[in-house]
Amino acid sequence: MSHKHNIEAVDRTLRDILRIKDRRSAERTFGGLTVVFGGDFRQTLPVVPKGTRNQILNASIKKSYIWEHIIVLKLTQNMRLRRSMAESASEYEEISAFSSWILQIGDGINSNVFGESTIKIPSELCIQPIHDPISDVVKSTYPDLSTCYSDYKYLVERAILAPHHEAVSAINSQVLLEFPGEPRCYLSSDSIEVDPGQPNIMESDYSTEFLNSLKVGNFPDHELKLKIGCPAILLKNLDQSIGLVNGTRLVVTKMGSWFIEVQILTGTSIGERVFLPRLKLSERYKSLHFTLVRRQYPIALSFAMTINKSQGQTLHHVGLYLHKQVFCHGQLYVALSRVTRKAGIKIYSCNTDGEHTLSMQNVVYKEILD
Predict the structure, then answer these.
(1) Which ranges carry the DNA helicase Pif1-like DEAD-box helicase domain (predicted)?
(2) Which of 32, 252, 315, 362 is most deeply buried (CB count within 10 A of its CB)?
(3) What is the pLDDT of residues 56-92, one digit of tens each?
(4) What are the angstrom distances between the C-alpha of 317 and each of 165, 269, 274, 344, 347?
C-alpha cells in the first residue's frame, strides 16, 4: 500500500499543473480530476522502517486530508477464488468455506485487544516435518524440480513465501543449489553519500566489507548468484511500457559480463526478452547518516520471496514458511490469499523454539478496518 505522502505529492503536483489552465484547480483535490484508487485495507500497510503501530497507521491514506474527499465503493467477489469455476457442489462449498476463512483472518476475528490471535492450521494444509524445515517446504512447493526446471509455467505459478528476508535468502540459496546448471556470481560496487551537515562522517569510516554486508528490503544484495533458467523478480521500475515494473517475474536466459538477458513471465509483455544492465541504486540509512549507493543488477531470485513482495501476485502453488511468525498487519492474509484454490497452499509453521507446530500467528490492526 502506498504511503499517504506519495498520494499527497500527486495531489499537489496536479493542482500545480492544472491551475495554469484554470486557477480554480489549485483549490480542488487532484486539481479537479477524478482519481480511482484500488486496494484492500486487510492487506499490508505502508512500510515505515522501525515504525511503531501508530506510525504505520498514520502513514495510511485514511489518515490523509484526502480521505474525506474519497467515495468508497466495496467489491465483494474474490476474483482469485471464483465460485463460478467450481465443477461440483462440493467444490463450490470448499471454495466458499476457504474464502470465508481467509476473510475472517483478514478481519482479525477472535483476536485479542492488540489484534493478535493464534490460528489453527487445517491438517490438509500442513507440511509435515520429514527432513529439515527448508527442505520440507522446498519439496512441497517445487516437486520434481530436477525434471521440471525448464518449464517456465511450472516456475511462474509457484513460490515460497516467508515474513523475513533472512528466511527468503536461505531458501533461495538452497533451491539454487538444487537447480541444474553452473552458477555465476555478480558482485556489486558499493559506496556512500554522507548526509549534508555531517562533517565528522567520511566514506573511509566504513569498510567495503561493511557496506557489502548491508541488506535492505526491495534492494539487491551485494552478491547475486544466478543460473540459466532460474526465476527472478524485478526490484525496481524500469520501463512500464514493456512491463518492466517492480514485482515483474522473470527467467534468466543469458548471463554476460556486462548484461543479463531475461524473459518476462508476468504482466503485459509475457514472452518478451530484454537486456538488464547494472544500475546505480540508492538507499538512505537514517541511523548511520548516509545513503548507500550500490551498483548492481536490479533483480533477485524468486524461488522464495517475502510476503510483502508477493502482494499483487497470483500463484497456483504457495509454500508458506513460518519459521518465524508474521509480525505486522495483513501479512498472513496476503500470504493465504495469493492462491486460486485451497489445495494450492501448504504451510510449515514453527513455534518460538523452532519446533514444528500446527498453529500460526495473525496480526490485524482493527483500527484501519473501521
Answers:
(1) 1-109
(2) 362
(3) 999 999 999 999 999 999 988 877 776 556 678 888 8
(4) 20, 22, 27, 4, 11
